[in-house]
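During the no-cost extension, the postdoctoral fellow (Dr. R.K.) reprocessed legacy sequence entries with the updated structure-token encoder. One reprocessed record is reproduced below for audit purposes.
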Amino acid sequence: MAKIKVAVLMGGKSPEYEISLISGREVVKQLDKNKYDVFPILIAKSGTGTEKVLKLEVDVAFIAMHGPFGEDGVVQGMLELASLKYTGSGVLASAIGMDKIMFRKVLSSQKIPIPKYVVLRKGGPRGIVKKILGAPPYFVKPSNQGSSVGASIVKGEKEMGKALKLAFRFSDTVLVDEYLKGLELTCALLGNENPLALPVIEIHPKKGEFFDYDSKYTESGADEIVPARIGKKITKRIQEIAKEVHNLIGVRGFSRVDFILKDNLTPYVLEINTIPGLTPMSLLPRAAKEAGYSYPALLEAIIKYAL
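Re-encoded structure tokens follow.
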């Protein structure tokens, strides 16, 4: 049987460039060389390198790019124009998943629980935050980044300026969320229209007060317990909501939906990751392993859904 030719795209014009490289290299390393001819494609921070994949005669592009220009529909659109199959979601689902404001609006239309929030624009008025959310604490983050890039907790009004300055470095629009206290959870999914919900993971950050960049990508940055110790009823509810979100956005192949279990009782959706991390420390491979998928088997499933 002829091998499937796979181009693995990594890097890109994103603050998550380094993480994308780690994900991409791990995918290249773990793909079964008896089944696949693998062609690593490094996309530079300037964006150069994308043309290489269009020159290769491959069966599928494996997108291991996180954040803007990789996870937001841009690369997906280029591959659509080239009539080249690729892993993960299409242009629209990728764009909605990356744009936290549009994502929240879609979920609100279906009454899926999300935090109360305010959208601020660079240079715009900020007094609306207190009127809608009341006094701090708040959770502040850019509207179009992943991996908690530019995110921070505001405990008092004096910290607001610093938090907004950081978030506006990455986006012209910023989300200010009500601060929900509770257990951080995540549920990964595999599949297209009828995805398999993998075991829920319970997250206890050790580097910071929330599951920030350092907690995610530093060894021993967080305690990640799988399956989560939340009982069968809440586990089932979270998996059901995660599947509903996956289907509502139109996600393909794989995803990961992040939650806060408010007061350790009520699940609220924070965001969806349409290209979850694939590093050795990432949550999707951990959940897949608990469900019986080795890393190579996980990659094989993702590619099958693309083909």
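The chain has three domains: 4-87, 96-114+180-306, 117-178. The chain is about 35% helix and 25% strand. The remaining legacy entries will be reprocessed before the final report is submitted.
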